[in-house]
Amino acid sequence: MDYMEEALFIDVTKISPEVKDLILNEFDKIRKLKLPNIPNQVSMHTKRNLDFAIAKGLHFSRIESENLLTDMYSLLNKIFDNLYQRDRG
After folding, report:
1. pTM score, whole prediction
2. Which of 45, 50, 51, 55 is nearest to 15 (CA)?
3. Predicted confidence (pLDDT) at residue 22 exceeds the cutoff of 60
4. Are 65 and 56 in contact (CB under 8 A)?
5. What is residue 44's predicted lDDT score, i.e. its pLDDT?
6. How many helices (H) and strands (E) does the chain have?
7. Over the range 61-72, which residues count as b (16 or more CB within 10 Å of their CB) and which as e?
8. Distance CA 60, CA 83 (A)
């Protein structure tokens, strides 16, 4: 699947009440937390659960979600590492 060709927004008229509840429940778990900076959020289990719920709302299968999130987190870690190296001089 080419993720770049997918519409990456949630059409709330096309998802089930169960998926809406899943997303809201996962969001509720982290909304009151004091979150670390974005590079450290990538490895948070709670954040990953929210990302999986959102992927489900985007109609990705479990395997597609795992692949998408693994690729996304890997890319984000590389970007953050490059920025860190750049800023260290």
Report:
1. 0.77
2. 55
3. yes
4. yes
5. 85
6. 4, 0
7. eeeebeebbeee
8. 30
Taking Cα atoms as reference points, which of 62, 58, 49 lies closest to residue 22? 49
Q: Report helix, strand or coil for 10.
A: coil
Long-range contacts of 50-54 (CB under 8 A, 24+ apart): 50/23, 50/26, 52/26, 53/19, 53/22, 53/23, 53/25, 53/26, 53/27, 54/10, 54/23
- Tokens for 39, please give them: 């590079």
- pLDDT digits 0-9 by tens, 34-83: 988 888 888 788 889 999 999 999 889 999 999 999 999 999 999 999 99
Residue 18 tokens, joined: 């169960």
